[in-house]
Write a structure and sequence with these properties.
Shape: globular
Radius of gyration: 22 Å
Distance between the termini: 57 Å
Helix content: 25-40%
Strand content: 15-25%
Number of helices: 11
Structural class: alpha/beta
Length: about 350
């Protein structure tokens, strides 16, 4: 442990010497351009105090987990940086203030937009849809997204590439923030987080600004949707890479619901446009709590939603979306079960029959 401690100190001292220490102080407004967002899709968002910041020769650093720093001449720009401590948003606690930027810097020409926000948004569908896409929407109010040279994020997966296809943004413009933890750009662009203002990300999504739902609907629903008219759907979460919110008796539940007219779906096997089309056209949804329920954004009012969730999870983000969209949302709380390889919740058939 002592050897590791001294090694880290040597590395830190080396990068302090190379790039200097990061501080919080007044910005040089000759290098930084700040623009405030007052309206998005004609909705007044002044109370959120959103900003887009453009920095000549700006830098960004991420530890790829809970910290992203946006830097102008060794000054941390707190409004558009991102820092969590054990899952809670904290001001003035960004890792670069104590450790500097301990990775070699990679320079990029032109305009580069910072989209990375730590591990939550890199692979999770809900965080991509509710956090990152709204950042692109905000930015598009001042900049033509197709004329931005690079986007600082992570390695893209299928639903992210499909979204970019709708926006006519080439995935080749994306810089992998895992490969390049520290970058500098001729002009670095960064935007305020659209919903994470305090506490945890779960709290933020449980209090999601309504403009996000309205703007996502406006953008995605103008696509050519498919006629996938499954009136009743069950979201099979057994394909999730996460261990939580999986039904131990998933096979029996699927069989029972199928006999009762439900279409069984694994969302990871569907294209984004198919997911949007299905949720737009369906009348009833039963699903364990999970990222796929972010698709409630696209549902018509009065759609019936039953969310199956362990007692220990207090997240209300999908209920919040349902409230904005005027859906008929209810929870079915189940006891969390540990030490079972198939899942962590069990839904008995008596309770299930009451749901349908």
């Amino acid at each position: 442990m002592k050897l590791k401690f001294f090694y880290n100190k040597i590395i830190q001292s080396f990068f302090f010497g190379l790039y200097g220490k990061i501080k919080t102080q007044s910005l040089d407004l000759k290098k930084v351009k700040i623009q405030k967002i007052k309206y998005i899709d004609k909705i007044n968002v002044k109370k959120f105090d959103y900003k887009i910041i453009q920095i000549k020769g700006g830098r960004s650093f991420t530890n790829y987990v809970e910290n992203v720093a946006v830097i102008s001449e060794n000054t941390l720009i707190k409004d558009v940086s991102f820092q969590q401590i054990k899952g809670n948003l904290k001001q003035n606690r960004n890792v670069v203030l104590s450790s500097g930027t301990p990775k070699f810097k990679k320079k990029f020409a032109g305009k580069t937009l910072v989209l990375t926000q730590g591990a939550s948004s890199h692979f999770n569908y809900a965080h991509w849809l509710l956090d990152v896409v709204p950042k692109l929407i905000i930015t598009s109010k001042f900049y033509n997204l197709r004329k931005i040279d690079f986007f600082y994020f992570s390695k893209l997966n299928y639903f992210q590439k499909e979204t970019l296809g709708f926006m006519k943004i080439s995935p080749k413009k994306f810089i992998d923030s895992n490969k390049y933890r520290h970058i500098e750009a001729d002009n670095l662009l960064a935007v305020s987080h659209p919903n994470y203002f305090k506490k945890t990300l779960f709290f933020a999504h449980s209090n999601l600004p309504s403009w996000i739902v309205y703007s996502l609907k406006k953008f995605f629903l103008k696509r050519n949707l498919k006629k996938l008219n499954y009136k009743k759907i069950f979201i099979d979460r057994s394909d999730s890479t996460q261990k939580h919110c999986k039904l131990i008796n998933n096979h029996e539940i699927k069989s029972f619901l199928k006999k009762n007219g439900f279409k069984i779906l694994q969302l990871s096997k569907l294209k984004l446009i198919d997911q949007i089309s299905i949720f737009r056209n369906c009348k009833e949804i039963i699903a364990p709590h999970g990222a796929g329920l972010a698709n409630l954004v696209f549902c018509k009012s009065k759609t019936k939603v039953t969310e199956i969730i362990p007692h220990n999870i207090k997240n209300q983000e999908y209920r919040r979306i349902s409230k904005i969209n005027r859906l008929k949302h209810k929870f079915v709380y189940l006891k969390k079960i540990n030490d079972n390889d198939n899942g962590d919740i069990y839904l008995d058939f008596k309770k299930l029959s009451k749901l349908i």
